[in-house]
């Protein structure tokens, strides 16, 4: 088969670090929430990030709360309107994921959580490609609250499966489940389930041992042993997991856990924050650095120790490493919202000049809401002040400016596109240093350092079918390309 190579003339911009970080609060129509989630995704395929907001909403201080699940559509400039065509199950204490479970190249939705009355529920919604969602009935997916969910290709068959953990009900207690996708969007519960059931749960998935499959880390409270746990489970490539016995991590709950390449060496490290014992005392943060083969060593975590917390990672200062925003409550019962910059070696420095509303029992996310290639911040949760504990939601738009902007034409190609097992990135006049691949949620799936070449082949066999963004970085330059995996 012939491969058609098409060169596109595009503009590449300088990526010197920002001369000064600046975030400006922008008024929105979002309802203030706590005990919920913020999830960005391009649900209507118009090339901007929309947002789903779940959680408890109260209109006045200490008033009776009601839960919400509301979708807001973006006009591309960061102006949002409430979607009135969808009617999602209202819930709080949620675990939410946008993912393409039926392979039709749009983002469907899975929601787990607690409605205002009754038992925890699960809701799976199918997207028609235009942001209109239909409830999928008769799924085996259980409902949990105070839980976590991962949607990823766990068994290596190029469709998206489900892992979840959380509290189900009084009779069944805490549950952890894996559901395999049959390729047609139907789910079957896995018979292999070594995962400890926990509440106050957090989890993440990444290939930590470089064997081309996704491993899982899970933290939370294990009621049967009255223990707070953090456990790593190794995938055999077919979705069968075994408990890792080579690493030991402190147990956490009511916080967050994340696989990220924090020291820029091409493998996934582990960041954790939360409570580590009864009554969530003491509160700690931990950072574990991957040695390259799936073994981890602890490094001092130079960011806040918080409970009822959440964090997110993005390169906000354009220096090719992952920075950190974190929210929660510290050991003095103070609410915290802080931005930290990474020096490239997983050492984080507080940016005291960036003032954000302090919250806990909420969520925080980076997202480029106005398509200016800068990461903005949306945070939600309860703020404690002299007026009591109030729900809030705040959008902060990134107004930072580059120190030396300039533009230069370049010729970049990504081929074949659509791709399946492999694709090649080629440049006529750039020396490639780094490759990053993102999904439609803005989540980084691959970071690859390159030894100053103009051509590189990428293995895409582990990527599910769908649309991706490829970022190609060279000396002081960056460009993005759309990639389709078929």
Automatic annotation (TrEMBL):
SUPFAM superfamilies for this protein: Integrin alpha N-terminal domain
Organism field: Polaribacter aestuariivivens
Residue ranges that the Swiss-Prot or TrEMBL entry lists as coiled coil: none
Keywords: Signal
Domain Secretion system C-terminal sorting: residue ranges: 414-485
Keyword set includes Endoplasmic reticulum: no
Protein name: T9SS type A sorting domain-containing protein
InterPro entries: FG-GAP, Integrin_alpha_N, Secre_tail
Domain of life: Bacteria
PANTHER family, per database record: PROPROTEIN CONVERTASE P (PTHR44103)
């Amino acid at each position: 088969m012939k491969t058609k190579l098409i060169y596109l003339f595009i503009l590449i911009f300088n990526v010197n670090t920002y001369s000064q970080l600046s975030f400006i609060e922008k008024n929105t129509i979002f309802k203030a929430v706590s005990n919920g989630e913020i999830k960005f995704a391009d649900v209507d395929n118009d090339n901007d990030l929309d947002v789903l907001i779940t959680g408890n909403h109260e209109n006045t201080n200490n008033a009776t709360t009601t839960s919400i699940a509301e979708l807001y559509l973006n006009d591309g400039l960061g102006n949002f309107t409430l979607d009135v065509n969808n009617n999602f199950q209202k819930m709080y204490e949620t675990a939410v994921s946008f993912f393409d479970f039926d392979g039709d190249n749009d983002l469907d939705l899975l929601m787990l959580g607690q409605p205002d009355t009754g038992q925890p529920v699960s809701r799976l919604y199918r997207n028609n490609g235009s942001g209109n969602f239909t409830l999928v009935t008769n799924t085996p997916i259980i409902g949990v609250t105070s839980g976590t969910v991962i949607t990823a290709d766990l068994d290596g068959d190029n469709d998206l499966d489900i892992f979840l953990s959380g509290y189900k009900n009084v009779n069944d207690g805490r549950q952890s489940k894996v559901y395999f996708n049959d390729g047609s969007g139907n789910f079957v519960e896995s018979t292999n389930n070594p995962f400890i059931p926990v509440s106050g749960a957090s989890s993440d998935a990444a290939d930590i041992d470089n064997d081309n499959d996704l491993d899982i880390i899970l933290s939370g409270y294990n009621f049967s042993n009255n223990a707070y746990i953090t456990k790593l489970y190794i995938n055999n490539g077919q979705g069968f997991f075994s408990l890792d016995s080579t690493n030991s991590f402190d147990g956490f709950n009511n916080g967050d856990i994340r696989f990220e390449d924090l020291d820029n060496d091409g493998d996934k490290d582990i960041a954790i924050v939360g409570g580590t014992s009864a009554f969530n005392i003491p509160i700690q943060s931990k950072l574990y650095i991957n040695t390259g083969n799936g073994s981890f060593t602890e490094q001092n975590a130079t960011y806040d120790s918080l409970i009822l917390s959440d964090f997110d990672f993005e390169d906000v200062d354009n220096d090719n490493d992952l920075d950190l925003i974190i929210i929660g409550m510290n050991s003095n019962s103070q609410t915290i919202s802080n931005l930290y910059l990474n020096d490239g070696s997983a050492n984080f420095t507080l940016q005291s000049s960036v003032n954000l509303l302090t919250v806990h029992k909420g969520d925080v996310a980076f997202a480029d809401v106005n398509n200016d290639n800068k990461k903005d911040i949306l945070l939600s949760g309860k703020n404690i002040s002299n007026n009591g504990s109030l729900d809030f939601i705040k959008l902060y738009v990134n107004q930072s400016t580059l120190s030396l902007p300039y533009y230069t034409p370049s010729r970049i190609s990504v081929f074949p596109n659509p791709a399946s097992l492999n694709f090649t990135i080629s440049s006529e006049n750039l020396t490639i240093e780094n490759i990053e691949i993102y999904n439609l949620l803005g989540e980084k799936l691959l970071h690859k350092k390159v030894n100053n070449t103009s051509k590189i082949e990428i293995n895409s066999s582990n990527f599910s079918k769908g649309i991706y963004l490829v970022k190609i970085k060279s000396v002081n330059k960056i460009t993005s390309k759309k990639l389709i995996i078929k």
